[in-house]
Design the sequence.
């Protein structure tokens, strides 16, 4: 970033922008000098004489790009200001340059982005501001590249995913047509010796219907799994950390990229039991997906996975003992992706984790995949490395620390007792077919009220009706499930606590924020109906 004619050019907004600086200093002379120098160098400058006034200014919405903060001030000093600043997420992101006449360990402990000693060398101050802006903009660019790489990977796999869905969809549709013909009696029953007996004919028809329904169920389960896997990787990666089973994320990653793999090699899963880890599932899936695709692309295209072909991709999970980058020794979760490809030449292997380094043709690869994988793994406190032998293949190895026992325990859902009685269940979903399905499936055990309008549901509760469980769609026209929850919580908090949200995807920032923060259960569509029915049995009457 360079200063040109009083304008600071950076990458934060794609063009020129004047940066703003807030000076927090109780000494009038020092404050005036800082204001003058910073304005001369093209900054918009505001100032306050103590931390309390500065905090009030920032909380009012008058944000700055950087704060120059004196540590020793009346009313509220620099340490107290930092404590309050860190409590407010929007303010905590603003970088701070601490200035003090006594650069002791206490001054450094303020956890500022930089700490300068008075009297401040103005050239050093300007260079420090420049460095902070440059580092922040690099972080923003990297975050955008990570997101772009994830979406680009999904884009290139879209055709393969469509193929994987179309196969089970084809035989689901065929069997639904068969069931329809059988029910309507329009399908001719094959004549056979001894088949005149009506009981035998009926038994034959039941067997055909049973087989057809089993195939429909199998096909729909395959589609549900594919959609669930795809939603894992298409969800925003900026979500929080949670305990994760790496084997499940590996399976989802392999399912998504199977069309890349199956025409080149056999996929072998060599899983040992491993501890849970703490990670962002979407970003970890991005790492696994990249490594599996790279392994597949190291093998000849259309080599097939059978007919004597020896090519294979092996996914391995195991536990090792040692340390990650000379850290504390202990258990380590190891994930490896093996391939029997051509290997990586010595003059290339040392560069593969560098940004924009690629051996692929122009327009085929950006050179960001492995660099981003390396950054994601490092950000989880782990390590990504490679072993390779020319002509025999490569092994990409991920080492990650296991989750603490406290994190594992907090992730376990509480146990609930089975429902002791026939309960009242309210279903709210703007899709009429989903309402009808719930009515059919739950009606044998519970009294079901199924409504396609959230406002109608609110009217029932406002009118005094009470339910043992409320199953509500999250995204609906007119009134969303989020708004319904807010209104119910206002008039009947006990009913709001009984809500379970059903969602085909939280597509808006507000919806994503709600699902991340709510204590209510959120269930993704398409449902695992058996698990959902069991949840209803557990919740009703609890």
Sequence:
């Amino acid at each position: 970033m360079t200063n040109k004619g009083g304008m600071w050019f950076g990458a934060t907004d794609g063009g020129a922008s004047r940066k703003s600086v807030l000076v927090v200093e109780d000494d009038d002379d020092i404050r005036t000098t800082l204001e003058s120098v910073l304005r001369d160098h093209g900054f918009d400058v505001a100032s306050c004489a103590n931390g309390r006034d500065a905090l009030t200014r920032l909380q009012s919405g008058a944000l700055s790009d950087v704060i120059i903060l004196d540590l020793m001030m009346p009313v509220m000093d620099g340490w107290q200001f930092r404590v309050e600043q860190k409590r407010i997420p929007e303010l905590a992101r603003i970088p701070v340059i601490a200035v003090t006449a006594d650069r002791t360990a206490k001054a450094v402990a303020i956890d500022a982005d930089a700490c300068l000693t008075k009297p401040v060398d103005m050239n050093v101050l300007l260079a420090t501001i420049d460095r902070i802006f440059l580092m922040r903009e690099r972080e923003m660019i990297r975050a955008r590249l990570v997101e772009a790489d994830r979406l680009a990977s999904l884009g290139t796999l879209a055709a393969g995913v469509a193929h994987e869905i179309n196969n089970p969809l084809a035989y689901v549709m065929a069997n639904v047509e068969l069931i329809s013909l059988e029910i309507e009696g329009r399908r001719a029953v094959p004549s056979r010796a001894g088949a005149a007996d009506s009981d035998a004919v009926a038994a034959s028809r039941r067997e055909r219907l049973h087989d057809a329904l089993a195939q429909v169920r199998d096909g729909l389960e395959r589609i549900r799994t594919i959609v669930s896997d795809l939603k894992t990787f298409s969800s925003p990666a900026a979500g929080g950390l949670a305990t994760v089973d790496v084997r499940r994320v590996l399976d989802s990653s392999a399912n998504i990229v199977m069309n890349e793999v199956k025409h080149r090699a056999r996929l072998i899963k060599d899983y040992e039991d491993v501890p849970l880890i703490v990670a962002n599932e979407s970003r970890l899936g991005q790492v696994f997906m990249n490594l599996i695709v790279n392994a597949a692309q190291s093998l000849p295209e259309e080599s097939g996975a059978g007919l004597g072909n020896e090519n294979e991709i092996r996914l391995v999970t195991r536990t090792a003992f040692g340390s990650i980058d000379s850290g504390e020794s202990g258990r380590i979760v190891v994930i490896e992706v093996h391939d029997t490809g051509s290997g990586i030449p010595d003059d290339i292997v040392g560069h593969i984790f560098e940004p924009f380094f690629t051996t692929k043709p122009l327009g085929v690869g950006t050179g960001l995949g492995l660099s981003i994988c390396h950054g994601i793994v490092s950000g989880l406190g782990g390590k990504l490395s490679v072993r390779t032998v020319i002509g025999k293949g490569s092994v990409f190895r991920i080492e990650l620390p296991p989750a603490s026992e406290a994190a594992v325990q907090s992730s376990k859902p509480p146990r609930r007792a089975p429902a002791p009685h026939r309960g009242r269940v309210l279903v709210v979903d703007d899709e009429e077919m989903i309402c009808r399905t719930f009515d059919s499936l739950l009606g044998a055990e519970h009294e079901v009220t199924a409504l396609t309008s959230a406002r109608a549901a609110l009217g029932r509760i406002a009118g005094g009706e009470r339910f043992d469980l409320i199953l509500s769609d999250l995204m609906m026209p007119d009134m969303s499930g989020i708004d319904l929850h807010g209104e119910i919580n206002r008039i009947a908090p006990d009913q709001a606590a009984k809500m379970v949200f059903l969602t085909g995807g939280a597509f808006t920032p507000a919806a994503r924020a709600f699902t991340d923060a709510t204590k209510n259960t959120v269930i993704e569509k398409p449902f695992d109906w058996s698990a959902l029915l069991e949840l209803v049995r557990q919740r009703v009457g609890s």
